[in-house]
Amino acid sequence: MKSNGMKRAFKGLYQRLRKRWLAENKPHRRVKLANIAEGIHAGQITKASDAIITERYLLGKIGSTTDRVNVCAAIDTPMGVITDEAAAVGDMVNVALLGCAGFTIRMVASAAIAQGALVEPAASGRIATLGSGVGTHHVVGRALDAASAAGDVIEVDPFYFLRVI
Question: Which residue numbers in the chain have pLDDT < 70?
Answer without folding.
Answer: 1-2, 26-40
